[in-house]
Amino acid sequence: MRAIILAGGKGTRLRPYTTLIPKPLVPLGGKYSILEIIIMQLAKTGVTHITLAVNHLSHLIVSYFGNGERYGLKIDYSLEEKELSTIGPLTLINDLPDNFIVMNGDILCDLDYRGFFDAHVSSGSQISVSAYRREVKIDFGVLRYNESRHLTAFEEKPTIGYDVSMGIYCINRAVIEALPRGAVYGFDNLMLDGIKNQQKIDIRQFNGFWLDIGRPDDYQYADEHFPELAGKLGVS
After folding, report:
1. pTM score > 0.70 for this model?
2. CA-CA distance, 200 to 174, in Å (whole number)?
3. CA 172, 110, 27: angle at the middle one, nearest 5?
4. Total count of domains within the chain
């Protein structure tokens, strides 16, 4: 299996932790960086080649991970000279396999990457998106009414469930080959264009542990609780 990890962001939401180091290298529990945990997980699940799409402070990431030998796999790098959003960086990689994993470099989860990849390939999906159920609390009374504006229902501070993208995907190479090389192109563009072009996009629900380390509160939680999270993540 091949994986592309998006590690080029500036980590502005995680400042001041990312003032001097890139977000993927922010340490957890004083032991591992976020990206290091991801790489170790992918190595255990059978990934043999990882490409890190880098930009901001890329020299630090390259110096830290090198060629991947100490993790038992190959690591190489794709450098963005400008920010290309989420999917745009993939168009710069010339040796993509038929199907591959793409993921953000700031995610902690216990997803079965091998099972996710195999389900994508066996179903013939063009794009597979790993999804997680999030519950959002509405802090107001919600009014529901008909076209005549007559009240039909009332809910006091309801909780609404949404299936959200986890930032982990499997993609068929043909999808990327159809995109303009080196152009800004985000995950939102990929989804909206995929619907318009009637691509086979499959949603694969995940019910395990998932945490997006995008905000200081999330990072602080992961850092403080790392000893108990390590078991879920399969690292020690």
Report:
1. yes
2. 12
3. 100
4. 1
